[in-house]
Amino acid sequence: MSVKEITAEHIEELEVLAAKYPVRRSALLPMLHYVQSVQGMVSPKGIQTCATVLDLTPAEVAAVATFYTMFKRFPMGKHHIGVCINTLCALLGGDDLWKELTETLGIGHDETTSDSMFTIERIECQAACTVAPVMTVNWEFMDSMDPAKLKELIEKLKTGAPVQSTRGTLITSISDSERLLAGFNDGKVNDSPDADDSMLAGLRVAKERNMTAPIGKGVR
Ligand code: FES
Known about the structure:
The protein has helices at residues 8-19, 28-39, 44-54, 58-65, 87-105, 147-159, 174-182, 197-208; strands spanning 79-84, 111-112, 118-123, 135-137, 140-142. The chain is α+β, with helices and mostly antiparallel strands and 220 residues long. The chain folds into 2 domains: 1-75 and 174-190, Arc Repressor Mutant, subunit A (Orthogonal Bundle); 79-172, Glutaredoxin, CATH 3.40.30.10. A 5-stranded mixed beta sheet has the order 2-3-1-4-5, with helices on both faces. Helix 1 (8-19) packs antiparallel against helix 2 and helix 2 (28-39) packs antiparallel against helix 7 (174-182). Bound molecules: FE2/S2 (inorganic) cluster (FES).
């Protein structure tokens, strides 16, 4: 798969990101997301470009890019699919989801299908355990999944049929999600609800029972 070149226009957008922060190097994580939105990965050229814009060494940028698993050093497919493999999701069906996904697509962790449509990843807890087992598509939530729903989801993505996150947002591509993560507004901020009833259940019970958390030592 050929990796898209970073052009002068892209460097202008990287400069926009760097200018948002009082200390320019604070823009590095958003800039790496931006590079990934353009290239589908963080390539050595992408690392060099970020270093030049921020007046850092390539080694300093590479140290950050290689620390976080969200930044890939191989080209991702159009869609990134994550399956939470942490305890609660795993017990409630996450392991079955992962098995179904790998068998359906014929690839494993951090691998991409030969048609460049899908990259899959075993991911850690997404803080959405109330709706386990959880998957993500381009980092949008797919809550309370099961193997049948997963199969249907893959078919829709393959054919380009519209797919919505179970929380409302229309799924487009990992490239669009990376651009959003970089800090460029996609105008969809109101497409998803803040929290559903299951997420607020604990808070409701605590209020009903007048429960309070102990004050930590040294907290006034
Ligand atoms: S264990 Fe999967 S979202 Fe928490």
